[in-house]
Amino acid sequence: MASVSPNNAVFVDMIRSFVSLDSQIIRQNELLQNLRQKKHTMEAEIVHQMKNSKMQDTRIVISDGDLRIARSTQYENISLAFLESCLKEFFKENAQSADDCFKYIKSKRKLTSKEILRRTYK
Fold first, then answer.
1. 76-88 pLDDT tens trace
2. Same domain, 47 and 92
3. What does the pLDDT look like over 24-45, one tens digit per residue?
4. Contact predicate 84/77, CB 8 Å
C-alpha cells in the first residue's frame, strides 16, 4: 500500500472505509447471532415434535438433501480453571507438583502480538 500521511485525503478516506467496514461487520454479526438463535429454537421444536410423533428414524426429504435426527457430542473447551482442577485431582497427594505443572503449562503457551486499530464508542 502506498505511503500516506495523516493529513492526506487518501488517509481520511481509508479511515472512513475502515469505520464503515467495522460497522457493517458488527451489524452482520448481530444478524447472524439472531439467525442462529432462531435456528436453534426451531431445531429444538422440530426434534421435540419428531420424537413425540415417533419419527426419530425418519428422513425428511428437502430440496437439496434430507433432514434426520442425529446425536452430536462435543468435548467442552479446556479452560485454565478446568486444567488446574484436573491437575490438582491427579496430583492430589502433592499439591505443589500440581501447581508447578500448571504454571509450566501456562508458561509454554504461545503468545502473539500485533498492532491493531481499536475502535471505541462514545
1. 999 999 999 999 9
2. no
3. 999 999 999 999 999 999 999 9
4. no
Q: For residue 117, tell me if it sits in a domain.
A: no
The conformation of residue 59, written as its DSSP 8-state character, comes to P
60: its cell numbers = 425428511
Going by DSSP bridges, is the β-strand pair 65-67/60-62 parallel, antiparallel, or unpaired?
Answer: antiparallel
Residue 103's nearest CA partner among 84, 78, 90 is: 84
Summarised one tens digit per residue, pLDDT across range 50-100 is 999 999 899 999 999 999 999 999 999 999 999 999 999 999 889 899 899
Q: Around Cβ 98, how many Cβ atoms within 10 Å?
A: 19
CA-derived radius of gyration, the chain: 25
Give Cα separations from 113 to 31, 66, 110, 116 (angstroms): 30, 45, 10, 9
Q: Name the pTM for this structure.
A: 0.67
Its domain, for residue 24, covers 1-71
Q: Tell me if 10 is assigned to some domain.
A: yes
